[in-house]
Design goal:
Radius of gyration: 21 Å
Helix content: 10-25%
Number of strands: 10
Length: 161
């Protein structure tokens, strides 16, 4: 069995094609279209130039496949873990959240959980180190860092409707 290989090829006006040759010489490709769609193709074992299966996925479907391919311990919202036992997680604030329109400090997340909101992603903007007087809005994604227990408690607070 040889080492797997990944190569990429720009496709002008379309996107980029990524070709994976597995350790047992099977060939897969993914075309990352400029509009966010992905096309996954698998090629025949007896003829690596003959496509056996081709599936076009939306960006959302592609993200689901990525999550399914991650190790079992992976949480889609998990950003990182350190030897110190800290995790960083993305927590989305729903439009119907109790906290929609309220100040971050009112949530008492840091005081009650020990976890910290280190940034807020709003549309295409990142707001680092939001102050207690930062006004939350539905659709915001909060980047929360703390112990696993603290981050889970913060998620529970932010999930309140």
């Amino acid at each position: 069995m040889s080492a797997p290989r990944l190569s990429s090829t720009p496709l002008p006006g379309i996107g980029v094609r990524y070709d994976l040759t597995t350790g047992d010489s099977r060939r897969l490709s993914v075309v990352a279209h400029r509009d966010g769609h992905r096309t996954i193709s698998a090629y025949r074992e007896d003829d690596p130039d003959a496509c056996d299966l081709s599936v076009r996925l939306t960006a959302e479907e592609a993200a689901m496949v990525i999550d399914a391919l991650m190790p079992a311990h992976h949480t889609p919202n998990l950003l990182s873990t350190t030897d110190l036992g800290l995790v960083a997680e993305r927590i989305e604030l729903s439009g119907t959240s109790h906290w929609n329109g309220r100040l971050l400090g009112e949530s008492r997340i840091r005081t009650d959980t020990g976890a910290s909101v280190v940034a807020v992603l709003r549309r295409a903007e990142a707001i680092p180190s939001p102050a207690p007087d930062f006004r939350l809005a539905g659709g915001d994604t909060l980047i929360v860092i703390g112990t696993r227990e603290g981050v889970e408690a913060a998620a529970a607070i932010l999930g309140r409707e």
